[in-house]
Amino acid sequence: MASAKDFSTIPANATQQPTPFGLHVDEQKLQDFKTLLRLSPVARETYENQQEDRRFGVTRKWMLDAKEYWENSFDWRKEEEHINSFPNFKTNITDDDGTTLDIHFTALFSERKDATPIVFFHGWPGSFLEFLPIMSLLREKYTPSDLPYHIIAPSLPGYTLSKDLPISKNWTVYDTARIMHKLALSLGFGTSGYLVQGGDIGSFVSRIIAATYPECKGMHLNFMHMQVSPPGISPDSITPQEQIGLERCEQFKQTGSAYGREHGTRPATIGHVLSSSPIAQLAWIGEKFLEWTDEDLPLRTVLADITLYWLCESFPSSIYTYREDYASRDGGYFHGQKHLYVDKPTGYSYFPKELAPIPRSWAETSTRLVVFKAHESGGHFAALEKPEALWKDIEEYVQVAFK
């Protein structure tokens, strides 16, 4: 396996040089976190938190077990070591109004002049950590001299290592998309063009970029939600698997989306609540990793994400996108799938335990779909759950769309 340093050479045509970055949380901050974790209580027994089917939320038993592991077995320094085994960078991106944002990204840069740049965008409550399994596959398979791609995984503005948003003005997903496009251009991807890939909020960022900027040549998504069926869709076009997916979406809207309304209508309040206790974040975010996956992820993987959120103090600044969701009055908007048509080659990976897996016929109404892959298993965090399957889909998409 090639070392991280081997994949860290910035493309020669980059317009600015990002600074190599190594993550190391201050020891005092880490000890303060451990103290807060130890002192944070888990709620007493109730009827609701004893229900093993989790219909009322995470169980007390899961919270106690997770807290015990977090306190006594989880090692943040090992997570840092894993993160730092990949090339990480910080760079300043200046917006159109002169505002400068400090943006983090991790990357695998190729030495090939014909390498295809692909920029991966995470969502909430995810982070760039979602894409490290795919990057691990690639650095085991390739060397910098034969890697066919540049792989870029930024921390979205407002999230974890790119947490600082302007506090004197409103910030939207369109602003995030613009900054991410500027990041791609700064790395020299404006000449040959680049591709975007995303799930959850990252799918919205991808869609805006693909629909807006000619330098973006196409997109691959694993989340493409629409609130309502597009006009003219025949019921005969919906497969049995897709019908189950639509029913899952309806169930999610009825029993699983209250968190989003809280994010969208009272972000300041929930920001204070979840910044007060690691256990509060464990319950709020841990529930999503339990409910939105097909098979349970390793607890270490879940805790790495939650710990990163806590240590970066990024929860309050990570939920701004939901205000746009719940400000909409015309439907079809959840996480941006507002029928914003993308007339560029598009790939779509369908995972059945996604929150809102839409049928292929729906996807074809808002994109120029060239590759569609339906999977028998997998959920919302596809890059974490099914990195091999998702990467295989992406690679086929690139070959079909740009052969």
Characterize the structure shown:
By secondary structure, the chain is α/β, with parallel strands linked by helices. The chain has two domains: 261 residues, Rossmann fold, CATH 3.40.50; 115 residues, no CATH class. Helix content is 40%, strand content 14%. It contains 15 helices and nine strands. Strands 1-2-3-5-4-6-7-8-9 form a nine-stranded mixed sheet, with helices on both faces. A hairpin with a 5-residue loop joins strand 2 and strand 3. Helix 8 packs across helix 9. The longest helix has 16 residues. The radius of gyration is 20 Å and the shape is globular. The mean pLDDT is 94. One of its GO terms (molecular function) is epoxide hydrolase activity. One of its GO terms (biological process) is epoxide metabolic process. InterPro entries: AB_hydrolase_fold, Epox_hydrolase-like, Epoxide_hydro_N, Epoxide_hydrolase. Belongs to the peptidase S33 family.
Compute the number of structural domains.
2
Q: Please trace the helix and strand order, writing H or E for each element.
A: EHHHEEEHEHEHEHHHHHHEHEHH
Q: What do we call the CATH topology of the largest domain?
A: Rossmann fold
The CATH class name of the largest domain reads Alpha Beta
